[in-house]
Amino acid sequence: MKIKIKKTISHSLIWGALMLCGSSCDDFLVEPDRSNFTLENYFTKPEDAESVVNSIYESLRSTTGGGFNGAPWMMLEFATGLANTDLGQAQNSINVRNLTNSSDNDYGAAYWTSSYRGIANANLAIAKIPGITMDESRKQQLLGEARFLRAYYYYNLVRIFGEVPLITEPVDLTSPELYPEEASQEEIYNVIVEDLTTAEASGLPFTDETGRVTLGAVKSLLSSVYLTMAGYPLQKGNEYYQKAADKAGEVIASGEYGLFESYDDLHSEAKENLGENIFMVQFEPFIMPSNWQTSIIPYNKGISQYSDETGAIYANTDFVKSYEPGDKRTREKEFYYTEYSLSSDRTDTVDLGGYYIYKLFDPIAHLQTTSSGLNWTLMRYAEVLLVYAEAMNEISGPTPQAYEAINAIRRRAELPELEGLSQQEFREAIWREKFHELSYENKTWFDMARLRKAYNVTTGEFEDFVGHQFSYGPTLTERELLFPIPTAEIRNNEKLTQNPGY
User: Fold this and answer.
1) What is the reported pLDDT for 68?
2) Helices (DSSP H) in 313-468: which residue ranges?
3) What pLDDT band is residue 11 in, cutting at 50, 70 and 90?
4) What does pLDDT average to over the chain?
5) Comparing C-alpha atoms, which of 22, 8, 16, 32 is closest to residue 54?
6) In whole angstroms, what is the distance from residue 33 CA to residue 156 CA?
7) By three-state DSSP, how is residue 464 classified?
8) Domain boundary, last residue among 333, 368, 403
9) If both were cysteines, with which of 49, 215, 295, 423 could 397 make a disulfide (CB 3.0 to 4.6 Å apart)?
10) How far apart are CA 116 and CA 139, in angstroms?
11) Where a domain ends, among 345, 368, 391?
12) Whether the Cβ atoms of residue 416 and residue 425 lie closer than 8 Å to each other
């Protein structure tokens, strides 16, 4: 049984929400706890160690979701210029899409608060678990999970907001870190790497069907972190491209993961935490359902058992048409869908008037249950292959191993294999493949900021981020390389400095 306890340890920037649950993070029975506890009397038993680590996972769910107000995850998609919406009241989405974003955007506030909530719980776990008498190997694994999750939250924060407070110890009302200063991006990345390399040596299994942190997830995230450190803003270059290639190569060489044969498996509950899925946010229908389904279906077309059809996000037509001719991913109900049967008569199909996102679609929920148990994918094997190909190309040009990594993805898409490319041609081919393969998975904007490049969907070429014009008009400026620090945080902490242009 899962018991949810909240204990405020600071202001809204940093507070811990302890989510107590059983050994599987996939078990989502929740009820309020009626007892009281203190930090001094709580961390005494092995079960306490398990529960505080489980609490860190809870914040992963905070930025998913949907409905008539949109959802925080959409922030990173509308910022690419590759997404559209029919939801007029979702002003947070519209402001990001039109590049009129401000620090009052609730999406940015959700990323900030949920990340620091997860970090607060990770800090508690890392500080308190070593003092608990329990099986030593399990203790080290739990500490490894906490380190990974803290690194993940900081990795999002530093890429989204730039310089942010770096808090690595529990904070209470007497702590000098109650109103912390910002740390440099390099300092934050150094802690991320330290956490991940510590987690790498903590005895985690390479895979785990329950959805807990694994060694494969640690190495995969570390490869992504190194790739980002090689590019902007740190620009550490070839040493870090080599590190990225090495870590991605270890994941590939393990043989523990592989590409799904069918794209349908990307949104199949039966394949969650398996195969291509390296790390996911866990959901369970009717208990802790995922709730983005009403956002990825068209506005009031009558195709779903859900009563709310919001049209909150769908793909720009120009982007879908930028895929190569014959690309399987653009066929109906592979990555996108343009028609669907009516809920009132499943023998009658309606044209939806656009390209909606099928890779996130739960047919069972829409046709029958209106309660989706689909997990949200944070990392999958296709991304690792592309990280490897990109990093290897930067070090050595297009090697046979780099070609195989990208061609495995292209073979699944039923596209011709690449060959005979120059380093620059291969570089842009990898970027293009990442845009097309990882579309609408919260990856594209991070790549744009890391590369300082944007994809011109009309020409198929890459151009500088600053000055890139979206196909529907707005033009990126330097300020869009970061999101604004939320207004409430600036007001609460005078040591924070708003990002330029906001």
Assistant:
1) 85
2) 317-320, 363-364, 381-396, 400-412, 423-437, 444-451
3) very low
4) 92
5) 22
6) 31
7) strand
8) 368
9) 423
10) 23
11) 368
12) no
